[in-house]
Amino acid sequence: MQAAIPFTYPGIAEDVARLRELLGLGLRAAAWSPPPAPAILNLACGRADETGVLLAAAAPLARELFYLGIDLRPPEIAEAKARWLPTAPPGWQLEFRAGDASRTDRMQQLPPFNLVFIRHQNYWHDPDTWLVLFRNALGSLKEGGLLVITSYFDREHELAMACLGQCGARKLADLHHPHARPLPDAPKKAVDRRLAVFGPT
Ligand SMILES: C[S@@+](CC[C@H](N)C(=O)[O-])C[C@H]1O[C@@H](n2cnc3c(N)ncnc32)[C@H](O)[C@@H]1O
Questions:
Q1: Is 186 touching ligand 1 by the criterion CB < 6 Å?
Q2: What's the CA angle centered on 47, arms 183 and 70, to 5 degrees?
Q3: pLDDT tens digits, one per residue of 83-112
Q4: What is the dihedral of CA 18, 22, 28, 31, to 10 degrees?
Q5: pLDDT digits (tens, 9 = 90+) for 4-55
Q6: Domains (range + CATH), the chain
Q7: Ligand 1: does its nearest atom lie under 6 Å from the Cβ of 102?
């Protein structure tokens, strides 16, 4: 991947480096074996700051891949497009779409994915919607595919993991980053504080 345009926000480079480390550990614990041409969905991706490290951790040798980021917010999607689309080498299809991932009918029209990634899931903001997002994420997986979530808060992580368990997902790994960057806007909130990996039952 070519060097990305430096869209810089304080702390982001260190945050995504820690995420790469945590994701690498999680994928190894779940015995992830990257297919030669993986399809990867970044669900509720926001600005998708982690695109580079996600692809480096999950598809280190891929000459071909399909990577799709979806989020409700058009400005974040526009920024993700501007930042990442110019960096894709030949053979890599990167796409970002503004859309509602709770629309199961639309999600079912997507091709199946080897890996679905949800960074900073927001379960307790709207549990009913996130139940649907989690079901759609699991329903988007190819056989043998993995769902990875990260969380800002321990409690929200536990709630999301319980919800995924009720959806029939099988937990393969649950990790805590000891040096996650604390965020000042809420107590016990930290960037990628937890990461869990699930497979379908
Ligand atoms: C806590 S933010 C995390 C954003 C990004 N993954 C990150 O880590 O910076 C949760 C994101 O979920 C997105 N979201 C919430 N409901 C959604 C839906 N129904 N479809 C797509 N995205 C959704 C929001 O727009 C928001 O960007």
A1: no
A2: 125
A3: 999 999 999 999 999 999 999 999 999 999
A4: -130
A5: 555 777 889 999 999 999 999 999 999 999 899 999 999 999 999 999 999 9
A6: 12-199 (3.40.50.150)
A7: yes
> Distance, CA 117 to ligand 1 centroid (Å)?
12
CA atoms within 13 A on the CB side of 79: 15
Does 149 contact ligand 1 (Cβ within 6 A)?
no
Nearest to 23 by CA among 192, 200, 201: 192
Predicted confidence at residue 11, as pLDDT, reads 86
> Which amino acid is located at 35 in the chain?
P
pTM for the predicted model, two decimal places? 0.96
Answer whether residue 71 shows pLDDT above 90.
yes
Q: Ligand 1 in contact with 15 (CB < 6 A)?
A: no
In three-state secondary structure terms, 199 is strand
Nearest CA to ligand 1 atom 13: 44
**Cβ(185)–Cβ(136) below 8 Å:** no
Q: 72: Cβ below 6 Å to ligand 1?
A: yes
